Amino acid sequence: MKPISVHVDEEDYRDLKSLAVRTGRPVAELIRQAMTEYLKRQHGRRGSIFDVPVHHGGAQLKTWTREEVFDEMVGK
Fold first, then answer.
1. Which residues make Cβ contacts (< 8 Å) with residue 13, sequence separation at least 6?
2. Domain ranges (residues) in the chain
3. Confidence (pTM)
4. Is residue 23 pLDDT above 90, yes or no?
5. Which of 47, 54, 63, 71 could form an S-S bond across to 76 if both were Cys, CB 3.0 to 4.6 Å?
6. DSSP secondary structure string, 4-47?
7. Measured between alpha carbons, how far is 46 from 50 in angstroms, rounded to an integer?
8. Which of 58, 60, 6 is nearest to 28 (CA)?
C-alpha cells in the first residue's frame, strides 16, 4: 500500500473515530474502504456513446452506421 496524507475536517475526523470504535476497525481502514467505493462508483459512470438514449428531435434525415458515427466523432 502507498501511504498518503489527507486533511479532513475536525468534525468529520471525530465522526470517523467514533465509527471506528463502534465497528472495531481502524480509521485508516474506513477511509480506504470509502475511497475504494468512491472509485468504483466513478469508474462505473463511464460508458459508450451508444449507451446514450436517442433524442427524438424531429424527422431523421439519414440512417448512420456505427462506423459512420465513429468516423464523424474522430474527424475522419
1. 27
2. 9-46
3. 0.56
4. yes
5. 71
6. ------HHHHHHHHHHHHHHT--HHHHHHHHHHHHHHHHHHT--
7. 12
8. 6
Summarize pLDDT for 55-69 with one digit per residue, the tens: 778 887 889 999 999
CB 21 within 8 A of CB 30: no
> What's the first-to-final CA gap in the chain, in angstroms?
44
- Per the CB < 8 A criterion, the answer to whether 17 and 27 are in contact is yes
Tens of pLDDT, residue by residue over 25-44, are: 999 999 999 999 998 888 77
| Count of alpha carbons within 13 angstroms of residue 33, beta-carbon side | 9
